[in-house]
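Course exercise 7: structure representation. Students receive a sequence record and must write out the corresponding structure in token form. The form below is the worked example handed out in class, using Acyl-CoA dehydrogenase (393 residues). Read each field label carefully; the graders check that inputs and outputs are placed in the correct fields and that the protein name is recorded exactly as given.

STUDENT ID: A-19
EXERCISE PROTEIN: Acyl-CoA dehydrogenase
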Amino acid sequence: MTFSLRPSYPDPALSELVERLRDYLDGELADYERERGITHTSRLTRADLEPVWRRSRELGFYGVHLPEEYGGRGLSLTALAALKEEVGASGRVLGHSVLGDMGGPLRAGDILRHATDHQLATYLMPVVRGERACCFSLTETDAGSDVRSMRTTAVRDGGGYRLTGHKVFSTAGPFADFAIVVARMEGEEDAFSAFLVDLDSPGCEVREGATPMSGEHIESDIVLKDCHVPAANLLGREGEGMRIALGRVTRNRLLHCPSALGAARRAIELSRDRALSRTVAGGQPLIGLQAIQHKLADMAATFYAARSMTYAALATLDAGGDARAEAFMCKLFVGETAFRILDEAVQIHGKEGLTQGNEVEYLFRKIRMFRVLTGTSEIQRNGIARELVRRAR
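STUDENT ANSWER:
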């Protein structure tokens, strides 16, 4: 793998897909955002998002990773990562809606293989087609990294279940039609089940969630009070909820990394351009300062290392190998490296890098979140240590 801020790929099919995606992100989608005045702090509505879902579907991007029977192209994890990196590097506000991260097929994840025919027809295939949207409701105020301490419960009730609890950080909740909710079975200490919950059901309230430091209004609280869910909406079997929710942990952990890599790549590009165009005392370009040259050099070198290890781990998974340790390492190294890159990008941009509305300032806040979300850096270190011990036995 060679270093580039605009990577190319030996696979002609992937290369063509990446080029078309770049054209869409930099052209039509950029124009759409500009015409609507959409920024990272905009309160997005279905009216904003549905045209992007439909257009992305028409162009073959929305759900492109899915098997062909679901309308996708059955992409390898490595190919999907390349697309996610491009989205991250584009700087587009609505980039999360192009491949289906925001309420779409990527948010639904691997649950399609657990769904019944009824669930596929009513809930999941409409998501794949961009007609409906979903959110994933697992986290609670006191159940983040330790999700098994959740208090949301499900009680059997004749032909269904009644759910009670309070979920937080349900990403895409403000414009979702239904939620994938994981709850503890009442009276059973370690039995969790997953349910498809219509968000307009009696006893279900969608509240405005906390605004993360990125400033995006994409989170909701899902409050359930004796909310009836029909038995037909149970995903898989009772007690399989945690396995369904966490069943793709290694893959998902790795697939979050390309988005962060894309943001880091964007920051390097912006910093390089800033250094070339900005002049300092005496009319010398900023790039003429050795201190700036060294910052850019370190940013590029560490980016190359983080990207290389991520794609190596993805290739291992694509080949059917075990990459549990590597996934922990990549999430840790990519998160910490991307944050250092953004920190230096802010430094290179000076006062402008500290100003809200500047792209580098936004990316700094966004990447700071990555060190906590989807497993903190400390959790990744714990996982690496466990794998080292396991492999010594």
